[in-house]
Amino acid sequence: MLKLYYARPSLYARPVWLALLEKQLPFELMPVNLGGEQFEPDFLALNPFSRIPVLVDGDLRVIESLAILDYLEARYPQPPLLPTEPATLAKVRMVQLIVLNELLPAAVKVLMQADSTSEPSADLEYARLRVTKSLHFLENLLSNAPYFAGEQLTLAEIVAGTLVCRVPDLSIALEDYPKLHHWSMRLLSRPTWQQIALSPEEWQQFKRRIRKLPLIWERRRRQRLRTARH
């Protein structure tokens, strides 16, 4: 049986979790406590970069969200989560990459400095600009179709749909992007999205953990240096 090493709030693991549910595949969830378990030898044997998600399928181990999603699509093609028409496929890939390379890191930066009493920094302002620019791009790309690929739910929704709904937590009104707003509401009504929904308490805990990321990263750097020296 497939095994997914994950953490419930992880914005990288949740798309893989969704894809498994949408494909109706049998799988086992393997929780990883990101308070330090990702640095333990057992997990490092799965992923030496100490990141989730990790997918195990028999003797095969796959790391990195996009690689896992591509593997699932190729290995278990039904129901399909990628279009075959070239232009539509390119649109889906653009959504995936813009969300992971632009929207997600910018959103994390904003969350890390949320509720700060100091004046907004230039880095924070730039992060908010990256968020709004990404949202404008996605709004225009969505057009008037139900999904980015038209009538077909794809990996564009799987990747973007777990993050866009959280835009209000960045003090950015999703209603300012009406197409994305209706698209997001449509996704949240699906049984698969409801199955992975975070409680308000879980989301608050996740935001508190986000603000501790610099300390976690520093710990990770020290551990890697110690390992390299031995």
Q: If you had to describe this structure to a student in words, what would you say it looks like?
A:
With 230 residues, the chain is an alpha+beta fold. It folds into 2 domains: 2-79, 3-Layer(aba) Sandwich (Glutaredoxin), CATH 3.40.30.10; 86-193, Glutathione S-transferase Yfyf (Class Pi), Chain A, domain 2, CATH 1.20.1050. The chain is 54% helix and 8% strand. The protein has 10 helices and 4 strands. The chain has a 4-stranded mixed β-sheet, covered by helices on one side. Helix 1 packs parallel to helix 3 (65-75) and helix 4 packs antiparallel against helix 5. The longest helix has 27 residues, at 86-112. The chain is globular, with a radius of gyration of 18 Å.
